């Protein structure tokens, strides 16, 4: 019998507070607290921090720690060495629109109803609606975005027991701390929704084993090409902070190329679909997530937004050089409006660069 699943076990009790609304839902997409996305998030961020360490053995080590669907009843192979238990649920659900404390102006080309002559008109847009695009739809009757499903409200809390066993205990604890502090959970978590805080997890010490890779990978990893950017000042509330982050992202993304062009922006993420625009089929239909992670952390008596850039070895080799150029422009753009904090960030988590 494989007894490593029960050896060197540590139990951690912690409470998670949602700093921003969380789009964590069930089959009908309405708000529901489920453990599965937390399990997936921990596994994902372990791979970001430690995937490069194991090279060709990554899949087998990952399955050893977090389990696999192929299970052997005799040897226990396939059983996860990380066990989650939900102990308390104090989540409140809502469907309300978000406050717009710092609208961003977006210009559109209009045509005069009489002459047909084109002219530009600026419209105020809620950056939070921009970041949550797809979770809302525009209502012509109410002349505003309406959220289609309920979400978990900011300030809600849930509590867990987590049991971690095996020889990779320190790695899993590092991944847990990174996930809860910077990862986010639920739909649109890369855009800052589902940001979390836990005092118990923040009090955990980094193991000092994290090593920043000297090369990128086919999936996001902490590498010498990574970047960490934080807002220059604390904010008193999440809506203002995330609005600023959303505006920075919108402006930097839009600066990559001329309006109505999407080739460079499509290197960040796909698909891109814009009403009334003739977008190439590969940009509209291909799907891959962006390597930019936005979120909110507690800072002093307030909160502070951050953006983490984790470049990859691009999906299509023919576009690798252009992708690298786009990533550089993005990082330079964030550095121009935020504090670049990469070196301090790496030092804080105990890595080397």
Detail the topology: elements first, then pairings.
Layout lengths: L9 E9 L17 H19 L3 H9 L15 E9 L2 E2 L9 E8 L6 E8 L1 H5 L4 E4 L4 E4 L3 E2 L4 E8 L4 H15 L12 E2 L1 H4 L24 E4 L7 H17 L26 H5 L6 E8 L2 E8 L10 H18 L1 E2 L1 H7 L5
Antiparallel strand pairs: 1-9, 1-10, 2-9, 3-8, 4-5, 6-7, 11-13, 11-14, 12-13
Description:
The protein is an alpha+beta fold and 353 residues long. It is built from nine helices and 14 strands. The protein is globular and about 80 Å long.
Main beta sheet: 4 strands, antiparallel
Tell me the span between the first and last alpha carbons: 41 Å
Please bin the fraction of helical residues. 25-40%
Number of helices: 9
Q: Low-confidence parts, pLDDT < 50 over ≥5 residues?
A: none
Give the integer mean of the pLDDT values: 91
Please tell me what the overall shape is. globular
Order of helices and strands: EHHEEEEHEEEEHEHEHHEEHEH
Structural class: alpha+beta
Please tally the β strands and state the result: 14
Rg, nearest Å:
21 Å
**Sheet with the most strands: spatial strand order:** 2-9-1-10
Descriptors:
353 residues, four-stranded antiparallel β-sheet, 9 helices, 28% helix, 22% strand
In short:
This protein has 353 residues and is α+β, with helices and mostly antiparallel strands. The chain has nine helices and 14 strands. It has helices spanning 36-54, 58-66, 127-131, 169-183, 199-202, 238-254, 281-285, 320-337, 342-348, and strands spanning 10-18, 82-90, 93-94, 104-111, 118-125, 136-139, 144-147, 151-152, 157-164, 196-197, 227-230, 292-299, 302-309, 339-340.
